[in-house]
Amino acid sequence: MPWRISFEIWGEEFRPSRVPFTFTEQHDPGIIGTRGRYRGQPVPYGSASYVVPPTVRNAERIRHIVEIIELVLPAIREAGATEWHVSIDRFYYAQCNEEYSLEQLQMSPNLLTEDAYKATFDGRMTNVTEQPDACVDIWPYVRLVQQSVELPQRVVERELVELVYRSESGHYDHVLIPTGRHNVYLAVIVDRVGHAIFGHRILDLNDLYNLDERGFPKHDA
Question: Is 0.85 topped by the overall pTM?
Fold first, then answer.
């Protein structure tokens, strides 16, 4: 049962030729299409794909693509890409049972619901920002969600953390990363027991406490 894992990238102004990386397939905007709806016409967008080589073992393919793409993702963004995703294709002719390890699943971003987020508040939350005892490197995960949460590039490059709070049992850390908007943070939830990232959620204190953009209470008209 063969399978194919690839990283697909797209953008109206995306020029993969500007990315210092060898994609499996790529084209800049304006190339004359050879198939599909733009056959014989200039294609109005750029795209690229990287397919994991068959020499990489199945169990290592997701890790391989995460580690490879993480290094060039800033250049991909700078080249004009606006959309990207991992594509997993499985080809089979009979019964097919697909399994992924816990580590592989943890590489997939998890946007927490409000209930799931609140469930990680276990008793009193303590400020542990000054305690250098992180059990997980959160930044590969943060880079995966950077575009979807509109996180400034400088925050990622400098690995800026505003605050870290720990649940009373020590099970969860809430790592608050500044988004560039006053009182709005990317909250990355770290499962200290499982040594993994549980997920993330946007924490908007202005909305939560009915504050204006300066952090002052709003007054009803």
Answer: no
